[in-house]
Specification:
mainly alpha; Arc Repressor Mutant, subunit A; two-stranded antiparallel sheet
């Protein structure tokens, strides 16, 4: 990944340890999965996940404290509380899907899930989560490189790369062409 290495001892300067501080244990992921499927109430999480009340309370509080979930009064009964995903919470969806796919592929036993995660329009299974360049090329581990921030965009031949229009949700990417370009 290039000549520069990330300083492994200075973990605070990397986003991964910060993400793991918030999400780095099983129940937080299970609560998030349940939230993505529509669960909102403490009692729903409790019965659906089979989690101990004190652990659920602790994990929900942590997710709220970190802005991943928000607590709101229920519309039909203001005495009840709902836990709703925030934008920050929804941003975890690709990571959650990637971990799910990894578990399906490499789990200790074959996982045949039912229901299957599909795209809403065509109802076909979601493809593998991939890293994409801003112009849509698929990146593999061999195509990654670490640069100093001051050298971002500087190619080895001395030319300067200019940012392309970024891909946004709903854009259609031809995977075969993206793979060839990568």
């Amino acid at each position: 990944m290039g000549e520069i290495r990330e300083p492994q001892r200075e973990l605070i300067d990397c986003g991964l340890p910060q993400a793991l501080e918030v999400m780095g244990e099983r129940w937080s992921f299970m609560i998030m999965r349940a939230s993505f499927t529509g669960l909102k109430h403490f009692e729903e999480f409790l019965s659906e996940l089979g989690i101990a009340r004190n652990i659920l309370s602790n994990r929900l509080a942590k997710l709220v404290d970190h802005g991943i979930l928000k607590r709101e009064p229920c519309e039909d009964d203001r005495r009840k509380i709902e836990y709703r995903l925030t934008e920050k919470g929804f941003d975890l969806l690709p990571a959650m899907v990637a971990l799910r796919q990894w578990g399906q592929k490499y789990g200790s036993e074959f996982v045949s899930e039912d229901p299957v995660l599909v795209d809403e329009r065509d109802r076909l299974p979601v493809g593998p989560v991939s890293m994409l360049t801003p112009d849509g090329r698929i990146l593999y581990h061999t195509g990654l490189h670490l640069n100093k921030r001051s050298d971002v965009g500087q190619r080895d031949d001395g030319t300067v790369a200019t940012p392309h229009d970024s891909i946004v949700s709903g854009d259609v990417i031809e995977i075969g062409q993206a793979q060839k370009a990568g």
